[in-house]
Amino acid sequence: MTGLVLLAPGLPDSLLTPLRASGLNLQTLKGAPSPEQAEATTAYVVFGGSPASADLVDALPNLKIIAVHGVGYDGVDVAHARSRGVVVTNTPDVLTEDVADLALALTLNTLRALPAAEHHLRSGRWGAGERAPLTRRASGRRYGVLGLGRIGAAIARRLEPLGGSIAYHSRRPVEGVAYAYHDSPESLAEAVDVLIIATPGGAATEKLVNAQVLAALGPDGVLINIARGGVVDEEALISALIEDRLFGAGLDVFAHEPSVPQALLDHPRCVLTPHVGSATVETRAAMAGLVVENLLAVLSGAPAITPVSA
Ligand code: NAP
After folding, report:
1. Following DSSP, what letter does each residue of 242-273 receive, concatenated?
2. What is the whole-number distance in angstroms between the Cα of residue 149 and the centre of ligand 1?
3. Is 275 a catalytic residue?
4. Beta carbon of 131 within 6 Å of any ligand 1 atom
5. Banded model confidence at residue 309, pLDDT cuts 50, 70, 90
6. 100 CB less than 6 Å from ligand 1?
7. I want to staple 197 with a disulfide (CB 3.0 to 4.6 A). Which of 22, 98, 165, 225 is the partner?
């Protein structure tokens, strides 16, 4: 008997379908768990970044695993879960290339203002003889990656053929990497034209990209964020964009998703996507497969396939 697998509300069909096919006993959590649910629950499944609080862990005495559908587990109190003997798993590696693709796409779209150019054409302004505004070159620029982990490194690999320079900041230099290392986000921002964020979210990186970092990036600078919205001081970003102290931003993540500030929606040099870094058919299938494998392993008493190490 594997007990009850509680599902956070709103999980996508790409995950629900393989979960239903797994033979596990599933129920969606609505509000607080009932006493019967709490007693029976051995697993909890959440979408990456969604909350799985210490209170919830405490309410589920037989919980063995929190399976996160995503690589970022900033919504889970991992230390507390561990203290209660609960394994937390995520889905690393399988989504790296897709998220890096999106970061490159946002970079090119922001520098070359492709959504605005397309709107110019579709709205008939080109046909009426009006030229689209000039944009910014992508090749030969100075790129900075904030967080040179799995995704950050895959982004850097994609930037290499553009023929510019690549620098990075993580909390410590990465061994064997030839890119220039900067010991702070501000120093990195000062040295580059395009700053691409690929750190985890959570308390440790909250507003890591603040007004000072944006000022260091400067009025020709571009900010790309595929990490978590909370890593950027969104108010400071909006001010910098509105006051032309930053050229543009390409954002897949926002501070209070799914709400997106009107100022960003209205800004002509922002390219915005609805947190779709890993949202391809292939990657979502691989992520769902890993969630199911982790559940089946832990619930049968075997070690998790991809436990988080933090
Ligand atoms: P990872 O391999 O753990 O890489 C994270 C990198 O960030 C590491 O290089 C780490 O290096 C650095 N880092 C951590 N804390 C830092 C800090 N306080 N200051 C500076 N650098 C810091 O993780 P990943 O697989 O590349 O994923 C990165 C993140 O991308 C995830 O956590 C998630 O939030 C986000 N993500 C977004 C999407 C999307 O749909 N947009 C999809 C997947 C993932 P050090 O530890 O040496 O500092």
Report:
1. HTTSS-EEEES--TBTTB--HHHHH-TTEEE-
2. 6
3. yes
4. no
5. confident
6. no
7. 225
